[in-house]
Amino acid sequence: MEFRKVMSRTTRSGSTAVKRIAATVLLAAALVTMTAADQVSTQTVSQSRGKILIHSVTLGKNSHLVSDVRLAKILRTDGYRVHLLVGTDGGHWDELDKTFDVVHRFPSAGKSGTPEIDYLKMALEWSSMTAYEMTMSLADELLRQCDTLLRHPNTLADIQREKYDLVISDFFDNCGRIVSEYLDIPTIAYSASGMMFDIAFFPDMPSFIPTYMSPYDPGEMTFGERLQNVFEYVVSKVVWRHGWFRRFQLLREKYHMNASLDIENSYLRALIFVRSDFVLDYPRPLMPNVVTIEGIFNDDPKPLPRNIATFVDGAGSDGIIVVCFGTMLGHLDERRTELFARVLARFPQRVVWRLTGARPASLGTNTLIVDWLPQNDLLRHASTRLFVSHCGLSSIMEAALNAVPVVAMSICTDGFQNARKLRRVGMAFMLDFKTLTEDSLENAIWEVLNDPRYKRNASRVAALLNDTLVPPCEKFLYYVGYAIRHDGATHLQAGVLQNLNQWQLFNYDVTAIVLSVLVVALFTAGGVLWLCIKVTRRCCSALKSAYKEHAQ
């Protein structure tokens, strides 16, 4: 009897164990199935993200093209397939082919990507030009590149057969307007140069917004400066319209690629992504289709290359100075190269200097020269005390986001305005690159290193820039998907700018009519009053005469 009870309990126990094991197996199988389903779902989502074409500026290995490479990396991590359209002058560097799924290259016409071009000489020439001359010079190069693209219709036909979901065009190159209209797909115009002088960033307010190359600060202009700013604004609009847009309009018509919109208005139908933040930038109204993406490239720091890391780690408490003049200006002329080498050798800080070409004879033992440097990673390093820069937009954003004071020496184009923005927030000392001397450079570096206000202001700006509701990368990816999902988000069009001329936009016509009515009313009232006074005087005179006659 006891034996049966024991066996019965054993049997029930074994049965329970079997059930538990079976349940565990079934649960594990369900989890595996769910995981596999999730993976399949993830892969499906990833594969269905879409295919994007980036049309970049063809001017050698330039900062805009480097910026597009960084955009492509962000897009690819989110599952997009990304192709690039660029001229052969863009160069054949490994990162292009590694980053993009496909690189479409069209034959280029200029020398912008060849060793013969002297970018420093070109930049200095630009800095001495008038706004009109510089616009013509840039337009000439970009027109040549665009002409070679349109001259080879097979290139665009092959691209159209790819059936892209979205095209991202560089705002700086008007050829992107022609390409996006030809493809007739949702478009994002990406401005790697901040708020540019263009109808897409209307309404412009010259009363408090300085023109693109203006030396004035917003809200602090005197009457004379505002008068000058308005004059420059009007001249710039004429130059921009006839020296820039009209020439691309004629090129489009040459190849019978007309569209319903004038080329100047074409981006009113696109989303505009602009690398800017009002912590640094001038206050201004923006249309709904303009999206600021601020510190999109301020990603997590990566380990420094071994040679740079070893050099930086040995700097001690004095820290390091980073010297870099952008992607295109790897070298300086011999006089300035030796000047920099002599001055930098006098400081206790170690210096990491991006310089291509011959090593200067005056190079100090505290200076490491490299052909390339990871600028953002270096600026984020705890040992970095100062950044000597030409003030391209990427450079000033990275310096500001990482709270690094700047010795700013702009060379051309938007660098002057970028430098003024840093000086305006108190984190930069400006120098004139053309008239640079050893004393002026040494004094500027000593001042920024020793005056705590520069670092304090840089830290304040960095805190403001990094205090965002949504991380910039997430914001960027959201609006890319938004443009694809909503067929270009045409409901955000700034069509009002297309339908209104300047007189209507600022109510000058209404003001003119109101003033005209007031003037007419005043003249009428004045006339009536004058008539009443005249009649009254005559009546008084008649009564006076009658009274005199009666008195006699």
UniProtKB/TrEMBL annotation:
Keyword hit for Transferase: yes
Gene3D superfamilies assigned: Glycogen Phosphorylase B
Pfam families membership: UDPGT
Residue intervals passing through the bilayer: 510-533
This protein's record includes keyword Transmembrane helix: yes
Keywords assigned by UniProt, alphabetized: Glycosyltransferase, Membrane, Transferase, Transmembrane, Transmembrane helix
GO function term, MF aspect, one: UDP-glycosyltransferase activity
Record-stated family: Belongs to the UDP-glycosyltransferase family.
PANTHER family: EG:EG0003.4 PROTEIN-RELATED, FI06409P-RELATED
Protein name: Uncharacterized protein
UniProt source species: Ridgeia piscesae (Tubeworm)
Species classification: Eukaryota, Metazoa, Spiralia, Lophotrochozoa, Annelida
